[in-house]
Amino acid sequence: MSGLSVRAAEECRYDAVALGEVMLRLDPGEQRIRTARNLTVWEGGGEYNVARGLSRVFGLRSAAITALVDDEVGHLIEGLMLAGGVDTSLIRWVPSDGVGRSARNGLNFTERGFGVRGAKGVSDRGHTAVSQLAPGDLDFDHLFGSLGVRWLHTGGIYAALSEQSSRTVIAAIQAAKRHGTVVSYDLNYRPSLWKSIGGMARAQEVNREVAKWVDVMIGNEEDFIASLGFDVEGVDEGMTMLPVDAYAAMIDKVASSYPNLKVIATTLRAVHSASDNDWSALAWSVDEGLVQAADRRNLEILDRVGGGDSFASGLIYGLLAGDGLQSAVELGAAHGALAMTTPGDTSMATRDEVHKLARGGSARVER
């Protein structure tokens, strides 16, 4: 019903595969990064979080295409991925040189924010193993053809890691398309990542090329402005939610410019404080037009990092299930909302909880 043609599950080893960096997140809990004395470790990454949600929350067969240095930190990340139910057989292991001169594993220090103090992330991800992953390092035709993958998800975070990573994104997407795999892409614009390789101009050059091959495009209004160069009136860094008509006009422009897109989705967020957000989502498809998820006002936030990724995994789960665009966007918005009530990049929700909230369920205690 969304206009997507999805391969049958029985002919594919994987329901979904994500291409991107998996970092070690170091979380100071209620402290600031600068005052922390103890740090909790999680795994996380914009693209990986989607595969992890599809596996652990929704029970699908997922894997991550990534690269890690073969050292203790790399295997710590691997263990966290395995605990998340994500197949790690597609990891490319890079030998350690002992000090990380040639390749490193990425670290991400993230504090959650509260009230008037916003969340803050400090990445340490230069020269990571996955940023050096080249198109020829993996046999994409074997993966998408011989093994079979129903859905590939990747995004603008991985594409921005290096000049090489953007080429790897395009090679993977083109191989996926050759073998009938649906491709989704989350624009996820991060100015700090593009800064040293050409800034916004380079981001738009890369993402406009990628967009030609994508089936499902995901991003918020700032992503569409910075990554693809579309104008959206009234944007003020997410402090207030724009009228739905403004988002609809933006989606119309994107759909007209890229007729290959079958689905376009955007989260809607207004930030009253770090711990009080309005939250909703819109999705458009060729067959069903524009639909909106439930509008959740004054949603209480514990940790907003990963909310958009959990939206993406819920949306993808719904589209793979073939239940229609309205159902898919409700599942995505509900999953994103639940993910922001727990710490860490990844979701701790269950599939039943997501379905219950998507149907309008309450937070009443269950005994």
User: What fraction strand?
Assistant: 15-25%
Average pLDDT reading: 94
Shape designation: globular
CATH superfamily: Ribokinase
Write down how many β-strands occur, each being a DSSP E stretch of 2 or more residues: 14
Instruction: Note the main sheet.
Output: 10 strands, mixed
- Shape-level CATH architecture: 3-Layer(aba) Sandwich
CATH T-level topology: UDP-N-acetylmuramoyl-L-alanine:D-glutamate ligase
Helix content: 25-40%
- Taking all Cα atoms into account, the compactness measure Rg is 19 Å
Q: Whole-Å distance between the termini?
A: 38 Å
Poorly predicted runs: none
Q: Count structural domains.
A: 1
